[in-house]
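Students often ask why we bother encoding 3D structure as a string. The short answer is that it lets us treat folding as translation between two languages. Here is a chain of 258 residues written in the first language.
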Amino acid sequence: MAKVETKREDMVYVVQINRPESLNAVDAEIAAMLEEAVTEFKHDDTLRAMVLTGAGDVSFCTGADLKAVEGLTARVGSEESGPMGFSRITDVRKPTIAAVNGYCLAGGLELACWCDFRIAAANARFGVVNRRWGVPLIDGGTQRLPRIVGLGNALYLIETGVMINAEQALRMALVQEIVPEGKALSRALELAKILTNYPFTSLVNDRLAAYEGLSIGLAEGIKLEKELHRSSLKDSEMMDGLKRFADGRRPEPPVPPD
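And here it is in the second language, the structure alphabet:
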């Protein structure tokens, strides 16, 4: 079995770290395979969403394999793509979802934060536990965590190394849904398949405007939104969607779990 497995589910690309005997810790081989998978997703126009997960129900990813950490930083391309494989790739302009089962720690948390949002199984646990060993966050954690959970919550996690459960992560907005144990991947796939069937130009432009707007002022962000959506308003998929609405074909939106 490969250490990273990929499969296509309609227009969704599932990327699974497959090293459960080591809690899905990432070594240089896995990092290279993750970079390759994300690059393939980025360039394949037939794929509209990606789901990242870990094999088994015990661990999503516990971060870098600290017994082989030198290989991660020495890996060809790691400076550009990030030691964990793809954390420094910031131009994937399509939706990404993390399906988090069990431990999501250290560099694994950084990979989950790379995704647009996170679906957590009830047994999920999150933390910057690498704080105990003096290992820094160098796969985007210091930049993405504050943007997701706010500065105070981010520094609480980063400085203390505390491990939090799924309910605590939900209160911080680190995760967006909690589902029963073993159901994170199926729920992430369900959502991914729904959004891949939405008119896509407006979706990816909304996504891009939200990300790019974080680093500019409100007036500039409003202008960016207007410019991006010039193409959305001409999109044939939107026109088809409006026709379906006018014809009374109005499917219900997805509903979060209770």
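Translate back mentally: The radius of gyration is 19 Å. Keep this in mind for the problem set.
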